[in-house]
Amino acid sequence: MPYRLFALITTTLAATVLGAGVALAAPEGDEQPDRPKRERAERDGDQPERDKHDKHRDRGHRVMAALFRDIELTDAQKEELREIGQAHRKQVKAWHDEHREELDAIREKMRQARKDQDREAAKAAHEEFKALLETRPKPDAAFAEMRDVLATDEDKAQFDENLEAIKQRMKERRERGPREGRRPHRDGNDKRDRDGDRPQRDRDGGDEGLDI
Predict the structure, then answer these.
(1) Are 166 and 63 in contact (CB under 8 A)?
(2) Residues 45-69: pLDDT tens digits?
């Protein structure tokens, strides 16, 4: 299995297990479902936890901003969009909770395959992951609901254009593969090379952020 494919698989798996990308972010001001967890992290001084949450939140807001670029939203529309985003996030969270043990098991298979440099085992784990991922709530229905919130044909056309642009950027990033110019490890080698097929963090809100 080529490095790019392996990296994409493990990255997607990591994002799924973490609940990344994945779900739709509500417009600015929405209450976050993991707020108690974040508050505990802040109280206990868990900077990595805060950083991770902030990264996913910011990415989600960037995606929403891109989706509604050049579209004027009323307060009522923003509230409807917020509710749609909340409903989608609840569905995705429920899916993660239901399949967490399976996802953890696949992640361990991936880790072991990477350690053993066993491409056949990695491929088998990938197929298992793909099959499980097919059952995950997709954002397409939520996007359709969001589109229906818009009042004019012009706004809907702009939404379609924005969504297509996001998909295209995601496709281009996947095709480019891992970022160039990684910071060398202290032994002089790229950390990715030192670790082998190390999962990369995906690129921008798209990450698996849109899950498309």
Answers:
(1) yes
(2) 555 545 555 555 566 678 888 999 9
